[in-house]
Design a protein that fits this description.
Distance between the termini: 59 Å
Radius of gyration: 24 Å
Strand content: 15-25%
Shape: elongated
Largest sheet: 5 strands, antiparallel
Helix content: 25-40%
Number of strands: 9
Number of helices: 5
Order of helices and strands: HHEEEEEEEEEHHH
Number of domains: 2
Length: 225
């Protein structure tokens, strides 16, 4: 859908279908506020649209970070990191999930794998490794672009109802100076976002998750229970 489709709905909700007062230009700042709120809601609820995996980033033996001095850049749309996975550069080995720590161990000597990572000052920090590693970052991304014109495309599926009600509520309050109408529209917006999140959650209920067998600990203990 386009931004114009949402803003036409907004104008209708505000009894101004001709957009005499609530023009596209007047609405756009408030539509962007509603889009920013939608983005944060998707991030908070782990809506699949906000999930992303980076390309393979090469960490040479001289590198100890991603996003800092001497290391590769962070993904430009990164909001929050979910996990890091590594493998030997130049191989087709499976990636191995790395261990997140608050602070890097102070006494660990470099090995052929990176193993540990820490998120410090918005930089992914490593101890480093004795071999070149490929690292993929699984992260929450910024999913919504800023709208600048009515012809801009909005790519978030099933978001029109929430965006229409929430943008209309903001316009009613700050352009129309009608807090009563704004409160009514916000009530509808709350219902719309609840449905939006619920539909996404329902869709993820069928995702298979590999679980560790109950007696798997037997192998690691080397003895009987």
């Amino acid at each position: 859908m386009t931004a114009a489709e949402v803003m036409d709905s907004v104008a209708a909700l505000l009894n101004d279908s001709a957009k005499t007062i609530f023009t596209y230009v007047a609405q756009i700042p408030y539509l962007n506020i509603a889009l920013a709120e939608l983005d944060e809601i998707m991030e908070a609820n782990n809506i699949p649209t906000s999930n992303q995996v980076s390309t393979a980033l090469t960490i040479t033996t001289a590198m100890t970070n991603i996003g800092g001095s001497g290391g590769p850049a962070l993904p430009t749309d990164l909001i929050e990191i979910q996990s890091l996975n590594e493998r030997l550069t130049g191989t087709t080995d499976d990636y191995t999930q790395m261990v997140r720590v608050e602070f890097l161990p102070l006494t660990v000597i470099k090995t052929e794998s990176l193993i540990y990572w820490a998120w410090i000052n918005q930089i992914i920090e490593f101890i480093g490794a004795t071999t070149s590693r490929q690292v993929k970052v699984q992260y929450v991304k910024k999913s919504v672009a800023v709208v600048t014109t009515s012809s801009d495309t909005l790519t978030i599926l099933n978001s029109k109802t929430f965006l229409s009600y929430r943008t209309a509520a903001l316009c009613a309050r700050y352009i129309g100076e009608n807090p009563t109408r704004s409160d009514e529209l916000n009530t509808f917006a709350e219902g719309a976002i609840t449905r939006f999140v619920s539909i996404s959650t329902k869709g993820r209920q069928s995702i298979f998750t590999r679980r560790r067998p109950f007696r798997a600990a037997y192998k690691s203990t080397g003895g009987s229970w």
